[in-house]
Amino acid sequence: MIPLTISGTNLQVDDVVAVAHGRTVQLDPAALLPIQRSRMAVEELVARGDVVYGITTGFGRFKDKIISPDQVKQLQVNLVRSHAVGVGPTLPEAVVRAMLVVRANTLAIGHSGVRPEVVHMLIDMLNHHIHPCIPAQGSLGASGDLAPLAHLALVLIGEGQATVNGTVLPGQAALEQSGLQPLALEAKEGLALLNGTSFMVGMGALQVRRAINLALTADIAACLTLEALHGTDRAYDARVHAARPHPRQIECAAFLRQLLTGSELLRAHDPLNVQDPYTLRCVPQVHGAARDAIAYAKWVIDIELNAVNDNPIIFVDEKTGQTDVISAGNFHGEPVALAMDYLKLALTEIGNMSERRMARLVDADSNGGVLPMFLTQDGGLESGLMMAQYTAAALASENKVLAHPASADTIPSSANVEDHVSMGATAVRQVAQILDHVETIVAIELLGAAQGVDFRRQHMGKDRRLGRGTAVAHHLMRQRIPFLEDDVTLAPLIEEARLLVTEGTIKQAVEAALEQDL
Q1: Is residue 391 within 8 Å of residue 494, measured between CB atoms?
Q2: How far is CA 257 from CA 131, 264, 324, 469, in A?
Q3: pLDDT per residue over 225-267, tens digit each?
Q4: Rounded distance between C-alpha atoms, residue 152 and residue 2, angstroms
Q5: How far apart are CA 397 and CA 310, in angstroms?
Q6: pLDDT confidence of residue 462
Q7: pLDDT band at 49 (very low <50, low <70, confident <90, very high)
Q8: DSSP state of 49
Q9: Is there a contact between 430 and 203 (Cβ–Cβ < 8 Å)?
Q10: % of the chain beyond a pLDDT of 70
């Protein structure tokens, strides 16, 4: 792919995803002027000896400590070192790459007072695949993601650690291996690297893309289950959803109808059985509401990707050249934290629905005997998919703990100067955990639904057609996972199904098939 050009104004979720997976980056030449303008303003402030937070003063509670001009550079180095307090597992390289491109884009806006060399160093690290080793825990999500970004910034100055081609190296060695030299930070630059939401928004962008993929895959799984359980698609009628005009409920119902078009496994009108259980009948209402949460999260992330979330912010009047420096709170992660908490709840609900559909697939008593108990031909001797539902239930239950809103908590820091925090970094890490779980739950449902469909066709005739979309999903499942004639070790099969979900294979193939039909 051609390099992604960043300017501080047009970065989007899918751009971050592409960079996270290896796309190179370049700076828009037009961004140089505002970067240089704000940098000159900082240098003039220092030369005049003006008292400006974080430039000629200490940080946080030390805001009243004046720093002499000959110490402003050491101040920035000290800041980076002292704030590198992260703990816990190291972030995946994809997340680190997302953080790098987000921070570069934010600084490129031109209100942070850094030299162009700082932005270019971030880009060079991306393009040379130098990935700082960043512990996942330590951010309160208020004065930006201070601890994670400090570990990132350490490598820019030749300290800390980074991975290069899978090998962990000291920061300076990692840079020198690619012909790069560590930066000597100037006034304001350490603070500009650390203040901001780049961890939560970078990782958040990756989770939003996963959530979009998952929501559509869950729709596909639900429809395959509907066919396996001899359900009806009457509840997806367009008139029903037009009468309650939530737009994403309407979109979801339309997608379900597309998936099921031409299906010969659905139940015809039966006056004695006019409606299905909620997890089948109410898919548009629940999955549609989840789509709302995903869309909101994407909207917030797309804004934050191109936002100035530094402190203080440098404003230079283009006409007069007058400089105004404002200490404010754009680094506070509350918008992202609330969006991620909302997303957590929505994803948990998708998992709850999917697990209950799987429970119905394996329970002949609740599915009316349409399918054999635990989807096995020789129950008693064999357990079939009994335990697969246990795993789905365990994951769904764990999600209910993770779904507790991280943003509802706050704890003061910096001697009570930073007296309210967002916990947005915690929220986005929990989103990733919930996604891991729900992707697996949906994979288990697909495993059960494919097994159920095959049982149905054994009794009704193997030539009975599935829907246009569900037929594609079933075919892909059967390419990787056979019909289970006997008990087997299920864990590897669950993993195969999970990969079909996480890699987007089923979603992409089904969407392609539906587009051809149009």
Answers
A1: yes
A2: 45, 13, 57, 9
A3: 999 999 999 999 999 999 999 999 999 999 999 999 999 999 9
A4: 25
A5: 39
A6: 78
A7: confident
A8: T
A9: no
A10: 100
Range 149-169 average pLDDT: 97
The strand pairing partners of 393, in sequence order, are none
Answer whether 171's CB lies under 8 Å from 59's CB: no
Cα separation values, 441 from 158, 356, 359, 384, Å: 43, 10, 11, 17
Question: What would the 3-class secondary structure string for 254-314 be?
Answer: HHHHHHHCCCCCCCCCCCCCCCCCHHHHCHHHHHHHHHHHHHHHHHHHHHHHCCCCCCCEE
Q: CA angle 236-239-244, nearest 5°?
A: 90
Assigned token pair, 266: 């659905």
**Pairing of β 323-326 and β 25-27:** unpaired
Six token digits for residue 41:
């303003």
CB atoms inside a 10 Å sphere around CB 228: 30
Q: For residue 368, what are its two tokens?
A: 């009316």
Q: What is the dihedral of CA 125, 129, 130, 132, to 10 degrees?
A: 100
Q: How many CA atoms lie within 13 A of 22 on its CB side?
A: 2
In the block, tokens 């993601």 appear at 145
* CATH architecture for residues 207-307+342-517: Up-down Bundle (1.20)
Residues 119, 107: Cα–Cα separation, whole Å = 7
Q: How confident is the model at residue 319 (pLDDT cuts 50, 70, 90)?
A: confident
Average pLDDT for the chain: 95
Tell the residue number behind the tokens 């993770």, with chain if given.
Answer: 402
Cβ–Cβ < 8 Å for 119, 35: yes
pTM: 0.96
Q: Which residues of 360-392 are buried (b: 16+ CB within 10 A; e: fewer)?
A: bbbebeebeebbbbbbbeeeeebbbbbebbebb
Dist. CA 447–CA 490, nearest whole Å: 10
Residues forming the active site: 53
CA angle 19, 23, 28 (to 5 degrees): 85
Alpha-carbon separation of residue 364 from 174, 374, 417, 461 (angstroms): 59, 7, 60, 21
364 Cβ contact partners less than 8 Å away, ≥ 6 residues apart: 370, 371, 372, 373
The domain defined by 4-196 folds into Fumarase C; Chain B, domain 1 (1.10.275)
- The domain segmentation of the chain, as residue ranges, is 4-196, 207-307+342-517
d(CA 291, CA 322): 46
List, as own/partner pairs, every contact residues 407-411 make where C-beta atoms lie below 8 angstroms and the sequence separation is at least 24, other chains included.
407/334, 407/337, 407/338, 407/340, 407/341, 408/341, 411/140
Distance of alpha carbon 293 from alpha carbon 224, whole angstroms:
24
